[in-house]
Amino acid sequence: LDKTIRVKGWIQNSRMQGAKMAFIELREERYFNIQCVVAAHPEGKPVSKQMVKWIGAVPLESYVLVEATVKKPLEPVKSCHISDYELHITKLYVVAPGPKVLGMTLATAGKPINSYDDVDPVKSAEEAQAEAAALATHLDNIVMHKRAPVQQAIADIRFTARRLFEEYLRERDFNLFEPPCLIGAASEGGANVFTVPYFDTTACLAQSPQFYKQLEIGGGRKRVYSVSPVFRAENSNTPRHMTEVGTPRLITQD
Questions:
Q1: Is 212 helix (H, G, I), strand (E, B) or coil?
Q2: Element (H or E) spanning 144, and its range?
Q3: Cα–Cα 20 to 30 A to 232, which of 99, 107, 113, 204?
Q4: Which residue has the higher pLDDT, 37 or 124?
Q5: 253: helix, coil or strand?
Q6: Residue 229 in this model has a pLDDT that exceeds 90
Q7: What mean pLDDT do residues 156-162 have?
Q8: Are residues 135 and 116 in contact, defined by beta-carbon separation less than 8 angstroms?
Q9: Is 143 helix (H, G, I), strand (E, B) or coil?
Q10: Does an H or E element contain 129, and which?
Q11: What number of CA atoms fall less than 13 Å from residue 221's CA on the CB side?
């Protein structure tokens, strides 16, 4: 408390409180955010009325460096993850400005995709702010999609499961190997493959590392595993069926 600190983060929300005070929410990675207050001093130092107006107009999702004093709020800040403290800003530097108009807000990026059509239906600005968006909008604004805490949490869970899988197998003397993603022909029957031009011939995206696991076993390894993507050219237009799948795979010969 009452110490002056310097922190960096993204401006998640901002609002003016009259002409002499502004509130902003500063977000770090994932959902860690804190309320910041900037208020003009009567003598204009260290914060002037013009500075408050300028800070209130900094575009959302700008990456900023602030110098501020740590204070206790009058009551817990319910809208922020850090609720028992707030920052009273004395300086703010814009490291990387956000766009004047966001193609997709953080709130929308955190909601489930509502359509797999190529475009979103036409909406007013208020509707676009409050509603979920189509897949095309997420792909067109992939950085905002990645910034949403829920998307980062999904990635964290996925790679934590992968790490635990690998730790379990390493403890049991399994050996990691990396199968190729480009192969000369289909590796399995019963599934279509994606073909791609490869210099003066044609290659396929790997359907399965099964053949290469068997090569590892034949080469003297007794326990092997791989964690790699595989591709199936199947027209599966649902959230539960994908043409690219990342799966851990193992094989043993005792």
A1: helix
A2: helix 142-147
A3: 113
A4: 37
A5: coil
A6: no
A7: 91
A8: yes
A9: helix
A10: helix 125-130
A11: 17
